[in-house]
Amino acid sequence: MRSFGAFVVASVALSACALKGDVRRVENEVQQLRAEMARADSARADFFDVTFQQIITLQQRLTDSVRLQSQRLVAFQGTVRTDMTEVLRLLVQTQELTGQSQQRLSELQDRLEERERVPVVQGAVAGDTSGAAISAGDVPPASEIYNVSIQQLRRGSVQTARQGFRFLLSNYPDDERAGDALFHIGESWERSDPDSAAVAYELVAQRYQDSPRAPTALYRLGLLAEQRGDLEAAQVYYNRVVSGWPRSDAAELARAKLNPGR
After folding, report:
1. What is the dihedral of CA 237, 241, 244, 250, to 10 degrees?
2. Overall pTM surpassing 0.85 (yes/no)
């Protein structure tokens, strides 16, 4: 009996020792787990701190970049606004100068056309519509032939007017109106036969260089060349006007053709 009791007591003592060892082991494991969890929490906190700081830094950079771009945009808008104001000013100035140039050219053109409209003198045959009645058997004065031909040209009877001018040139080749007569022959051909008009104008420039019709004839040749698309030939004619008759109204018109931007 005593032996059994001692065995029981020994077993209980051993069990108690084993239980304490297990409890201590479990406590150690719990402490290790807590330590690992603490390290993990610390690492996670450090990670989030770093990431959050990076996000803040990136956001600050983006904000600074947006602010800088905004400042540049405002400055650019100011520059563009200034440039646009200057462009508008120059445009208005150019339009004013262009208007003045166009007015000047129009005045010159009117002067040339007015010079071409020679008034009929008192000795002209008024009301004569036949035109073809001019005869070589009884040659009238050059002034009468010229004025009758001018009347026919104004009335639209270009063929009759052309015959009259040719009659004047045949009978009075040295008359002061000869250059005008040849010029009007070219003028009568301009719409129906530009090539014949060009021939007449060229003869005016060659034969009657002292006539005020000469530079105008060359200017008309330049216009005809432009109409057929030969810009190189047109420039040649305009340059001939400028070099040969630099002070004429036709020369100023020719310069405007040679330098359209001025």
Report:
1. 160
2. no
